[in-house]
């Protein structure tokens, strides 16, 4: 797109875009590291993730302040208006992703040294990887104004939900097998749910990106594959 | 996202189809309007339907033809000797360039408010009374006084000037003068009010009062406003037309023009990207 007659306006927009990229990078990293801390039972790394959330929150404040100031100063129209409004929305989503990562990290500390079955760890790692990829792809799509890539992310959220559902079933099975594992499994269940929620925020960002690029709100129903609400608690444990 | 192609006009030839979002047939219909100042073409094949009882905004850079088109609607361009208008403009289906049409009557039906407030060098009362008097709208002095009072009230000025109706109109503040000009325009019971940048010489408070007035007047009048203030167009109008280099580039509901225009030229203009 051709530059604005007022070049300072372009500078404002560039700064906002850079802040979003920075914030997105940090939120994604927090998520990855929180999961690694969970799988490797690394309390120190978990502490680092918890501490890093402050920086993400500060970035959100910075983005909101700058966006509001730009709205007031430039009275933007059309794509510019959508772009500035979108930075506020995306900053909100990324802030939540940061919080979810922090929550996973806190549970790492709560769980302590209790060993977890390796299949569970693998499942969580897969879920985390998938969410992290969705997040980085959608942020790239947003930055590059790639509507097709954003829509791809939007459509792929079902896969994350399906992963979560299978983890949910697995955890349920462990809890029924051995009631002593309930506390531990409940923590893991929340961790899985947090990762799944982070995926939903990536989907939100995909919707925002589509709104910026196409100028219309995605009206279609989100693809959903979270069937955990339909899993009956009386499910029998598999025979061993 | 941006379609850089000529806008397709899906107009009916006679303009009998309602503009979307409005119930009745359009008030003003322009078909293939070309305007020349001597050799220079100022407007090229303009087609537009202006809905009844609503506000339509014309936007575009200086020299794009928006004021020229506005002035076609009450044949103000007739006063410019080198100006030639081709094509057809109708109001309520009647061709306003018909030779049999009385231009004075036309201008009574189509009032105009200009960029700079231009009250007559007469009293506040006389400014408003002048039109009804020459058009014979009042039979008695008290009828005339009623018309003046009602017009000033409709223009939101009565409270401020009721104790100085005999003071010169030029003694009012700029914003008051502009509302006096609006009162003068509506005193002759027009159907259409053309406003050519009515707020560009006013401060923000006087501007807000005019915008408030436009909002009230649109229930009874068809208002066409030319403005350089994009936010103003977005605030006061229901439909917006963007002119560029004598072409009507895009005409749509105001929300569409300012949120998601289809033409790249519109997009560039409203986002401040024209070099």
Structure description:
The complex is a heterodimer of chains A (240) and B (275). By secondary structure, chain A is mostly helical. Chain A has a single domain, classed as Methane Monooxygenase Hydroxylase, Chain G, domain 1. In chain A, 79% of the residues lie in helices and 0% in strands. In chain A, α3 runs antiparallel to α7, α4 packs antiparallel against α6 and α6 packs antiparallel against α7. Chain A is elongated and about 70 Å long. Chain B is an alpha/beta fold. Chain B has a single domain, classed as Rossmann fold (3-Layer(aba) Sandwich), CATH 3.40.50.300. In chain B, a hairpin with a 2-residue loop joins β9 and β10. In chain B, α3 crosses α4 and α6 packs parallel to α7. The two termini of chain B are 21 Å apart.
Summarize this, please?
By secondary structure, chain A is mostly helical.
């Amino acid at each position: 797109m051709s530059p604005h007659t007022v070049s300072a306006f372009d500078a404002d927009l560039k700064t906002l875009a850079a802040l979003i990229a920075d914030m997105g990078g940090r939120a994604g990293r927090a998520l990855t590291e929180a999961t690694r801390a969970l799988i490797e039972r690394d309390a120190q790394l978990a502490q680092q993730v918890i501490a890093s959330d402050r920086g993400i929150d500060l970035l959100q404040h910075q983005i909101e302040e700058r966006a509001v100031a730009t709205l007031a100063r430039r009275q933007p129209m059309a794509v510019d208006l959508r772009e500035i409004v979108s930075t506020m929305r995306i900053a909100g989503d990324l802030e939540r992703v940061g919080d979810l990562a922090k929550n996973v990290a806190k549970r790492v500390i709560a769980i302590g040294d209790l060993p977890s079955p390796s299949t569970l760890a693998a499942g969580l790692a897969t879920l985390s990887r998938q969410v992290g990829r969705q997040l980085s792809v959608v942020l790239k799509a947003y930055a590059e104004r790639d509507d097709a890539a954003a829509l791809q992310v939007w459509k792929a959220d079902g896969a994350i939900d399906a992963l979560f559902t299978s983890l949910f079933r697995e955890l349920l099975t462990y809890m029924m097998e051995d009631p002593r594992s309930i506390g531990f499994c409940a923590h893991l269940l929340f961790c899985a749910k947090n990762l799944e929620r982070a995926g939903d925020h990536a989907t939100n960002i995909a919707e925002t990106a589509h709104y910026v690029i196409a100028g219309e709100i995605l009206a279609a129903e989100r693809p959903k594959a979270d069937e955990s609400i339909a899993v009956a608690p009386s499910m029998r444990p598999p025979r061993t | 996202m941006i379609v850089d192609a000529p806008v397709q006009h899906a107009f009916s030839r006679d303009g009998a189809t309602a503009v979307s979002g409005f119930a009745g047939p359009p008030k003003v219909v322009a078909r293939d309007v070309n305007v020349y100042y001597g050799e220079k073409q100022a407007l090229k094949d303009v087609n537009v339907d202006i809905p009844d009882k609503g506000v339509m905004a014309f936007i575009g850079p200086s020299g794009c033809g928006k004021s020229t088109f506005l002035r076609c609607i009450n044949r103000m361009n007739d006063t410019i000797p080198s100006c030639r208008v081709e094509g057809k403009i109708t109001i309520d289906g009647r061709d306003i360039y018909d030779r049999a049409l009385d231009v004075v009557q036309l201008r009574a039906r189509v009032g105009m408010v200009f960029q700079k407030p231009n009250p007559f060098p007469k009293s506040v009362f006389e400014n408003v009374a002048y039109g009804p008097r020459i058009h014979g709208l009042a039979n008695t002095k008290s009828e005339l006084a009623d018309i003046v009072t009602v017009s000033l009230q409709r223009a939101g000025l009565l409270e401020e000037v009721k104790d100085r109706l005999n003071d010169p109109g030029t003694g009012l503040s700029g914003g008051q003068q502009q509302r006096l000009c609006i009162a003068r325009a509506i005193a002759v019971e027009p159907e259409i009010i053309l406003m050519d940048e009515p707020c560009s010489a006013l401060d923000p408070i006087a501007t807000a009062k005019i915008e408030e007035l436009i909002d009230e007047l649109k229930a009874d009048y068809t208002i066409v406003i030319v403005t350089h203030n994009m936010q103003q167009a977005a605030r006061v109008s229901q439909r917006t037309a963007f002119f560029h280099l004598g072409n009507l580039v895009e005409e749509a509901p105001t929300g569409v023009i300012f949120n998601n225009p289809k033409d790249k030229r519109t997009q560039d203009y409203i986002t401040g990207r024209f070099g």
